[in-house]
Every structure is written in structure tokens, then in C-alpha cells.
Structure prediction request, 151 residues.
Amino acid sequence: MKKDVVPVEIRGILPANSGCAIFVGNDEKVFVIQVEHNMGAVIGMFLRDTPKERPLTHDLIASIFGGFNITAERVVITELKNSTYFARLILQQQNELGRKIVEIDARPSDCIALATALKKPIYVSSSLFEQVEDMSEVLERINENGGEAEA
Prediction:
């Protein structure tokens, strides 16, 4: 893996005014990606391996990948433009004709949900990681207060 990306993981999920705050980071830094409330719930279900009565959309996508012998290799949160994060889903297909790598533009919430469902790594571009504000202390305070943000 090149040094132009930084490995991260989900450090926390919290309800927010406009959806859910997904805290993503590593021991060096944590930052927040705002997602729709239902996406936060889905990501949380995948993190906890919650059994589901019926397949969710991301389960369906994973099944389609399997049917076409496609594996999700990783996701990369690439940049921040006008307060919107961008991400890439890196897929690999291998068959009798050879190996093909495909990068697909996707919402970070979908990428994070798929990576969590499929137990695949999440990365952030180094330039974005340097740019984002460190929210580690905020997450620590929230965890100390039992999941409640201080007023």
C-alpha cells in the first residue's frame, strides 16, 4: 500500500441534529463524517454484526459482488469539497481472462457501510487526513459522558 493513504477505522457513531456523526480515525487523529440517520444505523448494525430478518441494500450489493466473483478490496475517503466528502470503492474481479481492478466513485457512507459489512479496510488520502480537524478530544469527552455531548 502506498504512503498516499492512511488506514483508519470507525471510532464511534453518534446521533446528530441532521443525521449521524461517524467518527473515523486512528491513534493519531479522529474526524467526523456526517451521514443520514438511516446510514448511521446500518453502519452500526454491520459493526455489531446484528442479525437482520431480510438483506439490506449493502447485503444485496455484497451478494451481487459474490455472484460475479468480485471482491471489494478497500475503500478510500479521498477528499473534501464544499463540505462534502468523496470516496472511492476499490473492486477486484478475477476470472479466466485475468485480474481487473475497478475504482468506483461512491458516497463515503456507502463505502463505509460496505467496508464494515465485508470486513474490508478503510483508508483516507494523506492530503485529506492532514486537512481535517482532529476531533479526538471531542470523542473522548462524549465517551466519558456516556455517549452524550457536553452542553
